[in-house]
Structure formats: structure tokens, C-alpha cells
Write a structure and sequence with these properties.
About 75% of the residues lie in helices and about 0% in strands. A two-stranded antiparallel sheet has the order 1-2. A hairpin with a 4-residue loop joins strand 1 and strand 2. It is globular, with a radius of gyration of 22 Å.
């Protein structure tokens, strides 16, 4: 191996370490502060004394409802928009560039802006108030640009030869989309869903303005509820001595994200392998 290749490999390894080391330190810090708090009671009990005691059961329910409604809205709408862009808007045209630029700009809008809009539109104008539904719809609006762009790039990445083969076999447009295009783009679509889940789970500003931050379990989608991310912020910033419980909640949040990541990949893997 020539020295330029060795140098490039060394630089790449150092850059990888520069990313992995801070992540490892972050997880170690969470474990060091929060491991002593983690227990089954912490997961199964509702919080008490503004989070100083009890657990996070009510927050897990609120977070689950918010994330479920968010994905139920964002995934089909995002995939539908991505299919329209990939199938009806030729790549490289002015319309494709303009629509892509608009989506990129929307993806870069600060989350606090989505929170203000969600409060004004969903909570006030539609009369949903501080509720799980308001928070989930605002989050869906926020992650849609990311979901659309990820799915669009995955769909456009399917080789043109597959389309030509489907046309030669006289496969219908719906058959092409359902049996070939979407299964082949499944890994890229999974990445979009995972990124959307990660951003939705980590969001605080949007939910403060829409879902609220009450500690009790919600009885319906129209009840207010506190998400895990909001609880971490409140414990760390507003509750004296709340850092260990904030760290423990952060560990739970990371574990949920890892589990959902694996589930999404496992769910879409058969779709890709079925056609192959």
C-alpha cells in the first residue's frame, strides 16, 4: 500500500475516533450519573414531587402516544410525497431543484418556529389546546421535510434498469411501485424513518408549546402530556438535585431509540428481500 493511501486511512481512522470518543464519553457520563437510579420501579411508577421521586411511567405513555401519532401522519404522507417527486418530477429539472430547495429550507427551520406555529394553529386555531394530538401533529410537520428528502433520494437511487425491465414485462405502474421500487428503496426509507424518530424523540421546544408538561398519564389524545425530552430538560434545569434522574431518563431515551432503530430495520428488511 502506497503512503498516500496509508495517510488517507490514518486520517479517516482519526476522524472516526473524533466522532466515536465524544459519543462514548456522553454515554459514560449518563451511566455514571443515572445508573444508580435505573430500576423497574423507575420504569413502572409515575413521577412524584415534580420528578424528584417516583419514575417515568406516565412519561413513557405520553412519549409513546406522541411518537405513534407523529409517525402515523409523517410516514405515509412523506412516502407519498417522495413517490410523487421521484416518479412525476424528473431529476435535474428546474421544478425538481425548486421543490428540493424548499424542502431543504423547511428541514433547516429552527424547531422553536414549528413550536410557535403548532401552538397558534393546532392548539389555538383548531382548538386542540395543550394536548398529545397538538404535539404529535406539530412534530409530524417538523419531520416531514426530512422524511420526504430521505425517501426521495432512496427512490431515485433505484437503478434505471429495474424500471426498464418492469416496462419490458408490462408491469403496471402500481405493480412497479409496490413490488419493485419501494422494496428496493427500503433501506433508504428506513434511514429516513429512523432519523425522523430520532429528531421527534429528542425534541423539546415544539412539545413545550403544544403537548404541555403535566406529569400525569394522559387519558386520551386530547389530554396534555409530558414527553421524556421535556422531562429531562425540566429535571436538569428547574429541579434541584434532579440531574441523576435526568441522566437515567436520558439512558431510557437512548435505549428506546436503539430499539426502534433495530425494529424499523427488521421490519423493512423482508420487504427488500421479498423481491430479491
Amino acid at each position: 500500500m502506497r503512503w498516500p493511501d496509508r495517510l488517507a486511512g490514518m486520517i479517516g481512522g482519526l476522524l472516526l475516533l473524533a466522532v466515536l470518543v465524544p459519543m462514548g464519553l456522553m454515554l459514560w457520563s449518563l451511566l455514571e450519573q443515572g445508573a444508580g437510579v435505573l430500576s423497574m420501579d423507575f420504569l413502572l411508577e409515575d413521577p412524584r414531587q415534580a420528578g424528584r421521586a417516583g419514575g417515568i411511567a406516565a412519561l413513557l405513555v405520553s412519549t409513546g402516544w406522541i411518537l405513534a401519532v407523529c409517525l402515523l401522519v409523517a410516514v405515509p404522507v412523506g412516502l407519498g410525497c417522495a413517490l410523487y417527486l421521484s416518479e412525476q418530477v424528473p431529476a435535474g429539472t428546474r421544478r425538481a431543484q425548486w421543490l428540493g430547495g424548499v424542502l431543504d429550507m423547511l428541514a433547516a427551520v429552527p424547531s422553536i418556529v414549528y413550536g410557535l406555529f403548532g401552538y397558534q394553529f393546532f392548539a389555538i386555531s383548531l382548538g386542540l389546546g395543550f394536548s398529545i394530538l397538538s404535539g404529535a401533529l406539530a412534530l409530524a410537520l417538523m419531520v416531514l421535510p426530512l422524511m420526504i428528502r430521505s425517501a426521495e433520494q432512496a427512490l431515485r437511487g433505484v437503478p434505471m434498469s429495474y424500471r426498464q425491465a418492469s416496462e419490458a414485462l408490462s408491469i403496471s405502474r402500481w405493480g412497479w411501485v409496490r413490488r419493485i421500487l419501494v422494496p428496493q428503496a427500503a433501506p433508504g426509507i428506513a434511514v429516513g424513518i429512523i432519523l425522523s424518530i430520532g429528531r421527534a424523540l429528542a425534541e423539546t421546544a415544539v412539545l413545550l408549546f403544544t403537548a404541555g408538561y403535566v406529569l400525569r398519564q394522559p387519558d386520551s389524545l386530547l389530554d396534555s402530556g409530558r414527553a421524556l425530552s421535556v422531562h429531562i430538560y425540566d429535571l436538569a434545569m428547574n429541579v434541584p438535585g434532579g440531574m441523576p434522574r435526568a441522566a437515567a431518563t436520558g439512558l431510557v431515551l437512548v435505549a428506546i431509540l436503539v430499539i426502534l432503530n433495530l425494529l424499523v430495520r427488521r421490519w423493512l428488511r423482508p420487504a427488500q428481500g421479498a423481491w430479491q
